[in-house]
Amino acid sequence: MKKKVILLVSRWCPTCPNADALWRKLKEEYDFDYEVLDVTSKEGRYWVSKLMIRSVPSSIVDGKLAFVGVPDEREARKLLES
Fold first, then answer.
1. ω before 57 within 30° of 0 (cis)?
2. Could you say which of 18, 28, 46, 51 has the lowest number of CB atoms within 10 Å?
3. Right CATH number for 3-81 from 3.40.30.10, 3.40.366.10, 3.40.50.11270, 3.30.300.350?
4. Hey, how many other C-beta atoms are within 10 angstroms of the C-beta on 29?
């Protein structure tokens, strides 16, 4: 089954572009669905509320909070391969 990665970001976040760049790089190698959501959007607020997220960037993989901050590339790869 294809994994789904959602990256929660905000406009004022200085490290969010780095997290986005990492997921986009991994997307070139792995087959997964990828979506970037601003925490102020309706869908973004849904995930913030559901998972009680307090910081961005936050990476949600298959509906579970997987990383807060810019993910470690090795850890992200391991998660995608599992």
1. yes
2. 28
3. 3.40.30.10
4. 9
pLDDT tens-digit profile of 18-70?
A: 999 999 999 999 999 999 999 999 999 999 999 999 999 999 999 999 999 99
Q: Is the pLDDT of residue 1 over 90?
A: no
Q: Are strands 64-68 and 58-61 parallel, antiparallel or unpaired?
A: antiparallel
Distance CA 61, CA 66 (A): 6
CB 40 within 8 A of CB 13: no
Sorted by where each begins, the domain ranges of the chain are 3-81
- For the full predicted model, state whether its pTM sits above 0.90: yes
